Predict the 3D structure of the following.
Amino acid sequence: MTTEPRPIALPVTAVTCLEDRAHVERTADLDLAAGVQRLRLGPIGALAVDRTLHAELTSDRPATVLGTRIVRTWTPRGPVPSPGDDSPLRLRLHALDRERDAVERERDRLLARLDLLGRLAADLLREIREGVGSGESEGERWGRELDRVDAERDTYAERLRAVGVRLTSLETEYDTTLRAMAEAEEELAELVAHVELTVEAAEAGPARLRLGHLTPCALWRPAYRAVLDGGSLTLETEAVVWQRTGEDWSDVRLTLSTARSALGTEPPGLVEDRLTLRDRSAAERRTVDVEVREEAIGDLGPAPVLGLPGVDDGGEARVLNAPSAVSVRGDGRAHRVSLSVFTTDAGGEYACSPELSPLVTQVVRFDNRSGHALLAGPVDLVRGSGFTGRGTLDFTAPGAPAELAYGSRDDIRVVRYAEESHDTTGLTQRTVVTHTVRLHLSRFSAPGEEGERVVALRERIPVSEVSAVEVRLREESCSPAPASVDAEGVVRWDVPLPPGGRRTVTLVYEVSAAAKVVGL
C-alpha cells in the first residue's frame, strides 16, 4: 500500500448550520494510482466529530473507500509570534526578549572597548616608565595621551552604566510580563487534525472526493429589518451566524436548518397518575369558593428561556438557503447573512390597553410574502425618521398575517380611572359589584396638523367559569357603546381623535354572585 506523504487540501465547500452545531461538506479532486493507497488530506478543524465522518468517491473508473479516520497531532507553536493570532502579552514578551538581546550585545561591546582602553593605558604607563629610565622627556605628549585615554574610559564607562540600568529595567519588565502571561494564559501547542483516507482503485485516474462531518461551536439565529415607508413595509430576512470551529468558511454554500439532530427519538416514559374521589363536607356543600386569577391570552408555543433563545420553527423542521456564496470567519463573532427581502402593503392601527400601559402604540399588520416561514426573532424597526428601536416577530407561516409594534406615540395621552361599588339585593341576597372605568384621551397636535387619528382602545372584563357568578356588561351605561366584545372578555372601541381633540370613554360592568359564594 502506497502512502502519500504530502497532505492534500480539503477546503470547505458547503455548510448546513443547525441550531447548535453544523454539518460541514468538503470536496477535493484526487489523482488516484492503481491499487490500494492511503491519502492524507487537510488540515481540517480539530473539533470534527469522528463518528459522523463520511466519504464518497465519484470516478469514471472503479474506486472504493476502504476506510477514513481523523488523526490529530499537537504542533508546537512557532518561536516567532503572529500579530493576528497571539495575545498582546506574548507579543510584548517577544519584543522585550529581542530588545534584551540587543542591549546585552551593546554591553559586551562596551566591556570589550573598556578592556582595550585599559590595556592601552597600561602600555602608555609602561612607555613613560621606560622613557624616564632611559633619560627621555616627552611630558607634553605623555600628558596628552593620558588625558585622551582617561576621557574615553570615562565616556564608555558612563555608557556602560546606562546600558546596565536599561538591562536591569528590561529584566524586571520581562519577569513581570512572564508572570502575567503565566497567570492569564496557558501556552498550549496547537491541535492540528488531518483525514487519513484509504482508497482502492482498479486503474489510475482522477476522482472527486466528497467528505462530510458534524462539528460543534457553530449556530445561527434569525433576525429581521423592517422599513416602514407610508403604506408599504419592506422586510429583510437575515441569519446571524456564529462559528468558532477552528477554521474559516470561505465562499461556501450556506444552508440554515432548524432540525434538532441532538434530540432523542424515543417518546418519554409514562408515569402513574392516580385520581381519587371523596365526598364533600357539609361546609363545602353550603359554600362555593371562588377566586379571581389572571391568565395570559396566547397560543401554544415554546416555553421562554433565559439567555439566547432557541429557534421557533412552529414544530416543523425548516430549511433556508443563502442566495449566494458567503464567508464566515471562525472568530466567534456575529456575521449577518442576507436571505430574502420583500415589500408589501401594510395596514395598521394605533392601539392602547390602558390597564397595562397608558402608551398608544403604532401596530403595523402585513402578510408574509417572503415565500418561506418567518421564524421568531428580533426586528430592527426603521421608518421615516430612521432607526426607531427593536421589536420581536413571532413565527409566521408563508402567506399568513403578521404584526409589528413600531413604538409609542408621544402626541396621544390616555388617563385611566377605575372605581367600584358594592350592593346586595333583598330577596336573593346576591352580591352585586359594579365596576366603572373612565378613559380620557387627549391629542396634542402641532400647528397646521390635519386629519383624524383612530385609536383602538381595549379594556377587559372578567369571564366567569362557574354558574354561581355572573358577569354582565351594562351597554346602556357605556359611553360610547363598545365596537366588539370577544369571548375572552376584551372590549374594544375605535375612537377618532381630531387634532387637539379630547374624548372620554366609559365602561360599566357588574359582577353578581350568589350568597353562598365566598372569595370575591
User: Anything to note?
Assistant: Residues 280 and 314 are 44 Å apart (CA to CA). Residues 300-307 have pLDDT under 50 and may be disordered. The first helix runs from residue 88 to 133. Residues 412-518 form one domain.
